[in-house]
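Hi D.,

Good news: the full-assembly prediction came through. Inputs first.
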Amino acid sequence: MDDLWTNTWRSLRAHKMRFALTSAGILWGAFMLTFLSGTMEGFDQHFRREIEEAGPKIVLMFPGSVLKNRVGERGARQVELENDDVERIAGLHSVEDTDHDLLMWSQVVRAGGRTKLLHVNGGNEGTARIRNMVVDQGRFLTATDVERARRVAFLGPTAAERLFGRLPAIGRNIQIESHSFRVIGVSVPKGEQLMHIHGKEDLTVIIPWTTAQRLFTKTERLYRMAFTPVTREESFDAVRHTRQLMGLHHGFDPNLRTALSFMNIYEALVDIYGMMVAIRIFLISAGVITLMVGAIGVMNIMLVVVGERTNEIGLRKAVGATRRAIFTQFLAEAAAVCGVSGTVGAVLGVLMTQLLGAVSPPGTPTASPPVLDPLTVIAVSTSLIAVGMMAGIAPAIRAARVPPAEALRAS
Amino acid sequence: MRILEAIRQALRQLRAHRARSLLTMFGIVWGTASVIVLVAWGQGVRQMLERGFFKAGKNMGEVWAGTLSEDYTAAVDRRYLWYNVDDLEALRRRARLPVLVGGETDEVLPAAYRQRGLNVDVRGIEPEVMEIRGVPLATGRAITRSDLNHNRRVIVLGDDVRNRLLGADGGIGSWVRLGGKPFKVVGVLEHVGTQLNRDGFLIDEQAWIPLTTLQNNWPKWWTDEPVIEKILYRMRDRNSLDETEVEVRAILAERLGVPAGDDQAVGIHSALKVLRQIPVDEMEALLFILAATTLMIGGIGILSMMLDSVYERRAEIGVRLAIGARRRDIIGQFFLETLTVTGLGGLVGVALGVGVCLFMGGLNVPDLVPVPVLQVEVVALALGVMGFVGVAAGVIPAWQASRIDPALTLRME
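Then the structure:
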């Protein structure tokens, strides 16, 4: 083994210039592959974060109407969505969280000396999960808050700032219309959203839906509800199950499209994610082909080396070296060139990705690339191994086949 | 003649080391092809993004009325904000920057045709809105000003709505019921597909009726006044994005009686703003740099091959110098040889790149998958970079060849 490495090293040193020139191809290929794949991963993560800020797998359901076509009936009947329906839908195995999602636009909210118009939402303890809201200070609603219809409010950061300025909001009282609520928490800002489902979420006030119905809407009827499927892929199942369940309880054909409408965020995202995958496949292929062309360069130089060292190979064989030993020697040389230059290229690629991240203004798609993402690591390492093999095998076979007698005669 | 001779020499040299020359030229071939493919693909990404973002309207701004952000006083009840016809007219009269302005109001209504039913996002629109959105009609006619003046119950259906509601047998002239009221189908929109910019339902899932018809039949619950929920405008070009927004907001804020900069009361969204955040120019430049470097690395391969060639032929060069060839001739010969090899590889690369572009362009890919868009400029660019690489790779071998000392090489023989 020691011998193998010494031989490899010597040969590389003897053709220093040539190897340096050709390994530039491998280095560049590995650099390009790492850089493109890493930057693309950053893009991907950025857009997923932006898009999913509104709620990673939210489905909204709106009741519609059922046309009556039976004799003696005229016009349309409204489908009445009620509290019980939400509970029934929560029982479906494909559904994770449900939300009554009561929406009260432009409510007069007072705190200290200020009076502001804010949107008030009635929700439950799962609302934060559904809408992807993160608690910054205090806590979110709990099951007990909902059960006991407590007068507590959770504020978006902009809403908190409008009402209290820079003063702490937790524990203070606010008046919604004429009812007093205690502030229990404030969420982390979402900033500019690419997708809006509940308006600007930094501006909302969330209270328990039980409290909202008791004090404000004063009805069990709902104009819409929200739920999340267990996994995004299950969202289509969840919608189908919901249609069946609602049809059963409200007496309509589940296939009737007017009865319920759904807005499934996953449906909108499938196309966009497909686009990102396509972009990635293209860029990774470009990187891999470049790497392969680099490998062809190494193969080229190795063939030349084999030709030049026919003599030496013949001599080694004559004194007893096996074909296998010769094969291994040349393969090791090619692998060493590809391995070293490829690794250097990959490291440079990672550094370049980070450098681009450092100079990009925060919030732009290239600003926060991952240091090492699994996909890039797998793509780079497998193609480097494949390429090293490709570059080494042909010259190694040629070397192994050199007939000793002829080689010795030639000198 | 000298040029032809050099080319012949180069080809002979290539034939003598066939395998090696082929492998070396791979670098140039792929380098040139990758310049074409990557730059054309960057163009493709740009076009795909613009197509996706402009599907609901090119260079469009969308204005809605939100809520007051300043302190609310019950004395002037402005709890709910909305626009009316006068606001729209004021905007049309006073705003200099928008080219077109149109009002829109929407309502989700049950639509029925025979036994089929569907919930549809119905938009009450002005004729200008159709023009701003720019969705072509598949058949029939658009909503006209006269439809608005006469409150006509006419409807233009999105592609998806038409398919689901009318099916194969229905078309222009059919009567559909919207919330129980009969409407005559006068037009069908062409298929729009995936939109990167959307407000509520996709255009394919919408139906358009005259603004006044919607206002009269389905008034909003909070007021008796005919409401315009949304104002669309088209800006002159993409550079006037910000100034147009400022102007529109100032006029409408004054109409609503809110501070001029209140972006919560007068909300404006524009797909261009999102598009602007995506660094398309930078991406294109980056792809070009990457591809050009690949080509240069290919050039290094040629350089190393030519250096070997000079070394192998040093005896020949020595003889030529000894019998009176000038150094200039030697330089010219090797320079032209390098250019020939590079040019040959480059032409194959151009063919390969153009082939890949045409192949990918011909694939039937989904709406949002970018394919390379081939342009003459891209090919010219690739050839330009290739020429540069050829010249750069030719300089050193030619110079080395010319520095050979004939006395030394002759003695070697």
